[in-house]
Design a protein that fits this description.
This protein is of the alpha/beta class. It has a single domain, classed as Rossmann fold (3-Layer(aba) Sandwich), CATH 3.40.50. The protein is 29% helix and 15% strand. The protein contains seven helices and nine strands, in the order βαβαβββββαββαααα. Strands 3-2-1-8-9 form a five-stranded parallel sheet, with helices on both faces. Strands 4-5 form a two-stranded antiparallel ribbon. α2 links the parallel β2 and β3.
Length: 262
C-alpha cells in the first residue's frame, strides 16, 4: 500500500516547525505541503507563508473568504445559520458560542478536495483507492494532546502527530525556530471569536487587521432573527471593548482541531 504523506500547514508555530524539519531532512519528507487559505489571515501569517514558499514547494487551496460564513441563506424549508462560533448572549446573561463549522469547511475540506481531485485524480463521488492510505500530518504538540484524534469514519485516512511522536511542546517548537533564526507568530483568522483579550490586543497592534475585525463585527450584529452576534466573548461591540479589563483571559484557539491555530 502506498502512503501519501501530507502536511496540513497553518503557517503558525507548530506546522512551520514541521515544514522546516522536513526541509532540513530532520524528519521523513512530506509528499505535499498544503495551506488552506481562509482569506482572512493576519498579514504576518501571509508573510510567514511567503517565506516558507521561498524555501519549499507549498500548495495553497481555498474555499473562499471565511467571512462569508456569517451570511444566513434561507430557502423554503431550509435554514442555514452562521457556522462561525460567533458569540450570542444566552440565558442568565451568559455568553455562548454558536456552532463551529469553519474549520471543517475552510480548512479540512479544501485540503481533502485537492488531494482527491488534483493529486489522486478521482472523479466526483469516486471511492478512494484501497491501495493508497492518506496520512495527514498535523502540527499538534505535547501540550495539546487532547486535540490529537482520528476521523474513524474515513478508513482511507489517518491523522499523524509528529511533534507528539518527537515529544515536542509548543515551547520546544519556539526554541527550534529561534535557534534557526525564525520568529513565527501564531496562525488564526483575524476575527476568530475564540481569541482571548491578549490575542485581540495582538490584532489591534496592526491597524489594517484591527479595522477589518471591527468592520466584520459590525456587519454580523443582526444576521440572526432572535439574537445579536459578536466577535468578542463579552457580547460587546469589538470597537467598544476595554481589552485587558474583561474576563476574557482564556484563549480557545486550540479548539480548532490543530488546523487553524498552529
Amino acid at each position: 500500500m502506498k502512503i501519501l504523506r501530507i502536511l496540513s500547514l497553518g503557517a503558525g508555530v507548530q506546522s512551520t516547525t514541521l515544514a522546516l524539519m522536513s526541509h532540513y531532512g530532520e524528519i521523513e519528507p512530506f509528499d505535499h505541503i498544503i495551506f488552506a487559505d481562509t482569506g482572512w489571515e493576519p498579514g504576518v501569517v501571509y508573510e510567514q507563508l511567503e517565506m516558507l514558499k521561498s524555501m519549499m514547494e507549498i500548495t495553497v487551496v481555498s474555499a473562499g473568504d471565511v467571512r462569508n460564513m456569517a451570511n444566513t441563506t434561507r430557502k423554503e424549508g431550509q435554514t442555514r445559520f452562521a457556522s462561525m462560533p460567533l458569540w450570542i448572549m444566552g440565558h442568565k446573561k451568559k455568553a455562548i458560542p454558536m456552532r463551529r463549522q469553519c474549520t471543517r469547511e475552510y480548512k479540512i475540506e479544501p485540503i481533502e478536495r485537492f488531494i482527491r481531485y488534483d493529486i489522486i485524480g478521482l472523479a466526483p463521488r469516486q471511492w478512494f483507492p484501497k491501495d493508497i492510505l492518506l496520512e495527514v500530518n498535523l502540527g499538534i504538540s505535547t501540550d495539546e494532546m487532547q486535540r490529537a484524534n482520528q476521523d474513524k469514519r474515513k478508513k482511507w485516512k489517518i491523522n499523524r502527530f509528529p511533534l507528539i511522536e518527537l515529544k515536542m511542546s509548543r515551547d520546544d517548537c519556539l526554541d527550534y525556530l529561534s535557534q534557526r533564526g525564525f520568529k513565527i507568530a501564531r496562525s488564526a483568522c483575524i476575527g476568530c471569536p475564540y481569541r482571548s483579550d491578549d490575542e485581540w490586543l495582538s490584532i489591534k497592534r496592526v491597524e489594517a487587521d484591527w479595522l477589518s475585525a471591527i468592520e466584520f463585527d459590525e456587519s454580523i450584529r443582526k444576521i440572526l432573527p432572535d439574537a445579536e452576534c459578536f466577535l468578542h466573548r463579552s457580547c460587546i461591540p469589538l470597537k467598544d471593548v476595554d481589552l485587558g479589563y474583561t474576563d476574557n483571559d482564556v484563549s480557545l484557539l486550540d479548539e480548532c482541531s490543530g488546523l487553524c491555530g498552529n
